[in-house]
Amino acid sequence: MSAALDSDAVQTPCLLLDEGRVRANVEAMRSRLRRLGVSFRPHLKTAKSIDVARIAMETPRGPAMVSTLKEAEYFAEGGVVDMVYGVGIAPGKLDRVSTLRSRGVDLAIVLDSVEQADAVAAHSVRSGDALAVFIEVDADGHRSGVGADDADTLLAIGHRLLAGGAELRGVLVHAGESYALDDPEDIAAAAEHERLAAVTAAQTLRSAGLSCPVVSVGSTPTARYARDLTGVTEVRAGVFMVGDLYQAGVGAVAIDDIALSVLATVIGHQRAKGWIIVDGGWMAMSRDRGTAKQAIDQGYGLVCDLAGRPYPDLILADTSQEHGIVAVRPGSQAVLPELPVGARVRILPNHACATAAQHNRYHVLDGDGRIHAVWPRINGW
Fold this sequence. Notes:
This protein is an alpha/beta fold. The protein is built from 11 helices and 18 strands. The strands form 2 sheets. Strands 2, 3, 4, 5, 6, 7, 8, 9 and 10 form a 9-stranded parallel beta sheet that branches.
């Protein structure tokens, strides 16, 4: 990318998105999953933008996964009709789900308890809407889900759903503990464990005569390192589209793959302390410090020039609400660059989801590094 970014045309801090990198990241993932013989359901929880969704999805109508019902409603307005709402369903949200479905949106929901299944069954009876449901299966103790070997609960959920006229669409697994790994062999092993959990649960349901057409797995690291997806029908992943420093620390993306950055302006210096002050604080970057537990602590972000090239060991070392302190990484012999007041830098985020959530639009870069479009994005639930 050239340094021809027309940064003077926008106010800082603002969110930049390298369209070419997004497209390359998506195509690389699609190609990989095609070789493994599975379909791809992009998770749109990071992007939250119809323009990014249209790059990621196989068709303008889907498939896609969302993390909030507001996302589902927003993407439905943009013509997306094949979606999974990937957070365990709360009974109070079922009316919103059915409203979307009444408009022709095939929105499936996720649950992992008999109590939820009873609520869904009762709603299906009352509304006449045969809700499409995935049973979430726990592969690694990361968060939610029924144990893959808990046949009693799996079957109880399945039978309760069918008794109410709901549709058992399949099983869904998320190997969230893969985010704590950084060795490709370990991540490949996590991917295999994820696959086995999903396939085992699906077989339990099928052996009891219950339908389980979809076997869905996914996380960015396991999607990147899975070697065999026998028995799986689809893979979900999302943050890989834009990448971030945490995923780079895991090894799921490269620094050069990261498409998201925050443009900030130098507003002062504390030369005796070795600091450059910028107008990008935690309100622009988020409070996320996920890389602090990794081999390389990136502070609040990695500082780059306008072409997106990282300065040697230059990080956003500390933040307050609207101020960022740029400094050389502790222990490094790198030299603080000469950046006068008014100079602009790009800061790569620790966690793309958290940083993007601070902004309501992307300033989109073309192949020459110029802002050629502004794409809206949404927040909220």
